[in-house]
Amino acid sequence: MADIAPFAPAGSGLVLKTVENGVLRLMLNNPPANALSIALMQALRAELEAAGADPDIRVVVLAAAGKLYSAGHDLKELQGHRGDADGGRAFFSRTMELCADLMQTIVNLPKPVIAEVDGLATAAGCQLVASCDLAVCSDTSHFCTPGVNIGLFCSTPMVALTRNVPRKQAMEMLLTGDTIDASTAREIGLVNRVCPRQYLTQTVQKYAELIVAKSPLTVRIGKEAFYRQAEMSLSDAYDYTAGVMVENMLARDADEGMGAFIDKRAPHWTGE
């Protein structure tokens, strides 16, 4: 397993990054709570968009500095605009639109995104975890959507949450605002795996390396198809994915992979 390169500031310094063997690691760096301020969301979105266009990047990992993964939106930033002429409406709208765009950027990115969670992920921070394709957390991590406790229902985090966990569990989190532990998050499907924190980065890196070893074309096709078919009826999903498989079958990487399997040799991917 490759060593993890040291993080370096990206742009504003609100996001730190490193690239190693096709894996881009992005670390939220907005202490103490890694709040999703306008500036942080813009910086993170820019890094993700750049990663999507970079053929050398095959997997993205989203980690965070400090004891909190992310406490969600920056409440002080939001409250600071209540004195605006419109009572804050324009700024609130801008914040929610940017957050929705960021989450959709993760889902639509042609590379898998893995959340590496060590600490508390709350509200839009929990939404960020749920929006990632995979999520691994330390055994001391916790998750919640506590907006109801402060008179602000977590309506936008609800979108990602209800697409990843059963409805009853999602409603329990949303209506009570209670915090769930790592094992419960694993049980309901919010995260893929829980491990001791000293092995967290190694575990995530192992996942990333397994994916990097696959055909980048096949991974891109598969991720896009996964999210598209999930919103379709059963019949439409089969019609759509049948077409996807035919086009995938015609790709050079599919020919190479199937031939390599038959020949009992390692495949050589070209991404075509």
From TrEMBL:
Keyword Amino-acid biosynthesis: no
Pfam families: ECH_1
Entry annotated with the keyword Transit peptide: yes
BP-aspect Gene Ontology terms: fatty acid metabolic process
Gene Ontology MF terms in the entry: hydro-lyase activity
UniProtKB keywords: Fatty acid metabolism, Lipid metabolism, Transit peptide
Superkingdom of origin: Bacteria
Stored PANTHER family: ENOYL-COA HYDRATASE DOMAIN-CONTAINING PROTEIN 3, MITOCHONDRIAL, PTHR43602
UniProt-listed NCBIfam families: PRK08139.1 (NF006008)
Membership in a protein family: Belongs to the enoyl-CoA hydratase/isomerase family.
Purpose: May play a role in fatty acid biosynthesis and insulin sensitivity.
Protein name: Enoyl-CoA hydratase domain-containing protein 3, mitochondrial
